[in-house]
Amino acid sequence: MNSNRMRNVGLLAAPLAALALLSGCGSDETGTAESSPAPASTTTASAPTIQTGTAAPSTTHTDHTQTTTSTAPNPEGCAIGELNVTLGESSGAAGSVELPVVFTNTGGRTCTLDGFPGVSYVTGASGSEVGAAAGRSGSGSLVSLAPGSAATSLVRATNVENYPADQCGVTDVAGLRVYPPNSYDSVFLAYPTKGCSMTGANINQLTVAPVAR
């Protein structure tokens, strides 16, 4: 190759080399600019805290103790252990019999009886009740019993065989269970007879009056 041509080639190559150098530098700057920037720190608001479970106990103490009140029995009332309960002499009436239930104070103090005794037919001393208990008749007042004194309540016993058989259910009874007025304790008084095992509006086998002197 002649010297002139080689010179021309050299002159041409020099600008190309310079251009290539500039192109390489531009590529590096562009790569750095386009690289993903570091993520900016993001502040996320925390969701409100929801408390669960049992709250701390209050320091104030509340007393929830319930007080049950009950009516005390009359301290002047005659207790079953202070009474001798017996049947007096019966007397007949139209279709019924009157039975005096006598309460005698066998204790060492004066006590009181107030109102109606509870009376019902039973199958025995520890037996079951037969039919309806005695209905109440009349009104009374407080009776004071000194030691050795007595008061009486009249019980009217109807002849139950006068009731229709299909409404009464006639059955044998051994006697009466008697509760003194305002007492939960009872005594058995032997009085074999017949009672109604059935109950109804038309059946009134026993009626009791309040205690009186």
TrEMBL record:
Q: Where is the composition biased (Low complexity)?
A: 35-49
Q: Does the keyword Signal apply?
A: yes
Span of the signal peptide: 1-20
DUF4232 domain: from which residue to which, for each copy?
78-211
Family matches, as PROSITE patterns = PROKAR_LIPOPROTEIN
Spell out the Pfam families in the cross-references.
Answer: DUF4232
* Keywords, in A-Z order: Signal
Which InterPro entries does the record associate with it? DUF4232
List the residue ranges of the region (Disordered). 26-80
Please indicate which superkingdom the organism of origin belongs to: Bacteria
Question: What's the protein called, per UniProt?
Answer: DUF4232 domain-containing protein
Q: What is the lineage of its organism?
A: Bacteria, Bacillati, Actinomycetota, Actinomycetes, Mycobacteriales
